Amino acid sequence: MSITKKVSVLAVGLGMVGTLAACGSSSDDAGGGSGGAKTVTLVSHDSWAASKDVIAAFEKESGYKVKVLKDGDAGQAVNKAILTKDNPQGDVFFGVDNTLLSRALDNGLFQPYEAKGSDRVRPEYRTDRDKHRVTPIDTGDICVNYDKAWFSEHKLTPPKSFDDLVKPEYKDLLVTENAGSSSPGLGFLLGTAAQYGDGGWEGYWKKLKANGVKVVDSWEQAYNEEFSGSAGGKKAKGDRPLVVSYASSPPAEVVYADPQPDTAPTGVADGTCFRQVEYAGLLSNAKNPEGGKALLDFLLSKSFQEDMPLNMFVYPVREDARVPEAFSKFGPQAKDPQTLDPAKIADNRDQWVKSWTSLVLK
Predict the structure, then answer these.
(1) CB 122 within 8 A of CB 319
(2) How far apart are CA 328 and CA 252, in angstroms?
(3) Phi and psi for 338 in degrees, rounded to 5?
(4) Phi then psi for 67, rounded to 5 degrees?
(5) For residues 243 and 6, is the Cβ–Cβ distance under 8 A?
(6) Is the entire prediction scored with pTM above 0.90?
């Protein structure tokens, strides 16, 4: 998700030390020629994270050193990758999701490669099956999170659905991200488009605006500064007890707390969720395509898929990958999330964002 996009800043706010330093250096031989270490470069959004021992095992087995370039929010990273596609920064791009996938594919960002293990991906997450330009890697749900303590203190029942958010009792409580610049912000917009349809989502946002929704540029700002329920938000004295984030945000609040609480301090409004799927692909004009293919195989391997939940707080797409108990206990996937066909997203996304911007920000 992913989820994503999302959790690395939260983890830092909770005292987590970064789990993966970029390996290799500019002096490494990216093509793997004689006399130099072979380097394969992964370009990603800022929330990439993986366990050092899992990366080390891949490096030992493959002979490639992994270099990671983090490039901002998912939307920013995708746009930059498109602009630099003729001379890409790396070999593999990780983190384009179903809300932005058509933009990447239409601009020729990736070259075909069917990663090993693709047959173990759950059918509902497979896409571009004929051309294999992208590989599904993880999934998660964009949902409204709520501050349990705030709602208990104010003796108010937390919202459960999109409809609830426009009720008077929730006025001035919600903060969301800009749909034009943030992946979760866009996902939340798409969730409302799926819920209310072409003829209803704009009317819904008029009500949400009238009910005092606050819009900020990024997930980091919304979750770690404005939201009263997160560790970072408490420190920043955030005053919004509702935030657009992820169904997997509550387990992060538990896992990185010291001491760990028995229950998560935040909850999820299950009726506000939109299913997000993240993909990786071999970049067109990659300088080390063979290393890139090996890295894509690794991202879909069982070892990496089982490493993701407690590092990037997303769910694996492999049907045989196990999920840690702490993650599934505090961050179960939404039972009935909103979804949209990728073709419908491709046909309408830019116009929806343009209309949303005119409606909500002006």
Answers:
(1) yes
(2) 11
(3) -70, 145
(4) -115, 130
(5) no
(6) no
